[in-house]
């Protein structure tokens, strides 16, 4: 469980996030959408400890973490997939994975540990690129690698900062399927997106950040039924509301798909 209560944060005394209250339950994808500069990255950086909140409470699994160092927050079970992927251009895929692997970290009780073997099973595209350097990967492969790296830290809460940015639609779809499958294994997922349609296809709830304030937070089904409100908040002409996703269909061999546990009901 990830919980934020009246969190305010910013830079050099200026406030970017104002009184943000948000709760994400395990197994759910909470999307936060907003325009450029709304404060989305500041939100994930504040949860991850890269920005120190001025006020408010942040809890991971009931444990307060606000103000802790980023490495301690990571150890509490927070994995960050940063905007722009931030893979190392000179390191190979294999080197990235070996450096990130932390199987000794306590995972969620009862949850299967993320190992390099399990990651490669999930992401066969990475398995085929093990000797490639970061700068030799496509944008989609870099994104998979960034997610793999975060998973190897054994997170309970996964923060994804615009994972679809710059990806072709089919690759963005694969990332979306991967994120949905990860949540289905019990991970708590906070997905920051600028593009509402990327978020709405995978999220259980959709929140809108406007000038650093959370002005909307509803189940996705309600958001789909209310496209005009979302369009107005995001200053876009229309909201594409694709049909609600059905049960998992067939996936191509190299499409990442996390084995799903029994339905949450
Ligand atoms: N390191 C920093 N120092 C000072 N100001 C910053 C810093 N990082 C971000 N800001 C400011 O905070 C505000 C919110 O930025 P943030 O990156 O959180 O927005 P965002 O919603 O993620 O935007 P985008 O969709 O363009 O990535 C902006 O006004 C930005 O200029």
TrEMBL record:
Family matches, as InterPro entries: AAA+_ATPase, ABC_transporter-like_ATP-bd, ABC_transporter-like_CS, BCAA_Transport_ATP-bd_LivF, P-loop_NTPase
Biological-process GO terms, alphabetical: L-amino acid transport
MF (Gene Ontology): ATP binding; ATP hydrolysis activity; branched-chain amino acid transmembrane transporter activity
Residue ranges annotated for the ABC transporter domain, each copy included: 2-236
A Pfam cross-reference name: ABC_tran
Chain segments carrying region Disordered: 244-265
Residues that span the membrane, as ranges: none
Keywords of this entry: Amino-acid transport, ATP-binding, Nucleotide-binding, Transport
Coiled coil: none
Domain of life: Bacteria
CDD domains recorded: ABC_TM1139_LivF_branched
Family label: Belongs to the ABC transporter superfamily.
Protein name, UniProt field: Branched-chain amino acid transport system ATP-binding protein
Organism phylogeny: Bacteria, Bacillati, Actinomycetota, Actinomycetes, Micromonosporales
